[in-house]
Amino acid sequence: MPRDPIVVVEPRRPRAHCAECRGGPLRRMVLRCSVPLCLGCVGLGHLVYLPRGDAALTRRAREAGEVWAVVVRHDRRRTRYERQGILVEEAALARAEAACLADAGARARRRARDEVRRAASDVRFAAVLTAEVRRLFPGCPADRAAEIAAHTSTRGSGRVGRTAAGRALDEGAVTAAVRASVRHRDTEYDALLAAGVPRRQARVRVAPAVEAVLASWRR
Q: Is the pTM of this model over 0.70?
């Protein structure tokens, strides 16, 4: 099995045609030197698609087969490619499904325990983060500090509180979370975005109001 998986691109709007067989538009393709090729022409036409979501099934399907590929799609908002699932051999997927079915009960119990542990950890971190917001901004109302901490530390949100700096209570990260809350809650920022004002321009326009609130909370 190759150390690095083959990358298959899934365009949002299939338009490209295979450079070899001219088939298309291609729902999924492999890019070689920026040239689109269909799965059949690169020897992956026999693979079946397994969407992301079940980590155990994905891992076992990869391990059970000889060939697999990762399917990605470009996210315009985040300006990066994000994983959608994998392509695996049908027989490998069948073996993986059987293995997952055999120990489904044990994995469900483990997931439940992990969920309880994560929930307790999140509550503790939100409390610590609330205290740090209040330390940096003593004028911030207690309920607002708790709201900021809960919002920015929501698991899976990708917000500042979930970054390494946020988890470490870095002053810059905590301040960024407070600034974001003020921008959305205490200025016309969201209304400007709704009116079509570009994000960067909207931020510049509300910056003085944001800094005024932060300055009042620091006192």
A: no
